[in-house]
Amino acid sequence: MDDLTLDEAMDELESAEDFLNYFGVAFDPAVVHVNRLHILQRYHNYLAQAGALPESEAAQRAVFTALLTRAYQDFVESDALSEKVFKVFHMHEPQTAFVPLSSITIAATPAPVTGGCGCGGTGACHSSEAALRG
C-alpha cells in the first residue's frame, strides 16, 4: 500500500487492524478484538467532527493518525458499554417526551350499553338473553 495515495489506501482498508497498522498506531490485539466496531465507529465520528481537512496529504495523514489513536485510546481507557458509541446502548436509558398542553383533549364519554353485547346492532343480539333462552 506504500505506492497508493492516502485516498486510495483508505479505500483499501477494511478492518480495525488494517487501519491501525496502516497509520502506525500501536495496539493491543485483545482490546481491538473486543472493540473493533466501536473503535471504527468512534474514528468515523471523530472524522465527521473534524470538519475540513488540510490540503496536503502529509497533514491529512497526521490528522487521521491522531484521530484513530484517540478512538483506540477511548477503548483502552474505558469499555464499549461506558462509551456508548452505538444507538443500541442508549435504547434503555430513560426517555423524555414533550407533550404540549394544547394537544391534550378530553374524549367524549360513550353512551352506556343497555343489554346485549354492545355491538350496537338492532333487534335481538347474538349474545342477548333472548337468544340464549331460545
Helix content: 40-55%
> What's the overall geometry?
elongated
Low-confidence stretches: none
Radius of gyration: 31 Å
Euclidean distance between termini CA atoms:
90 Å
> Helix/strand-derived class?
mainly alpha
Mean pLDDT: 77
Q: What amount of the residues lies in strands?
A: under 5%
Major sheet details: none
Order of helices and strands: HHHHHH
Number of strands: 0
Helical element count? 6
Question: How is the secondary structure organized here?
Answer:
Blueprint lengths: L5 H7 L3 H7 L6 H22 L6 H21 L2 H4 L45 H5 L1
Helix pairs in contact: 3-4
Structure description:
There is one protein chain. The chain is built from six helices and no strands. It has a domain at 6-90. The protein has helices spanning 6-12, 16-22, 29-50, 57-77, 80-83, 129-133. The protein is an all-alpha fold.
Quick description:
The chain is mainly alpha-helical. The chain has 6 helices and no strands. Helix 3 crosses helix 4 (57-77).
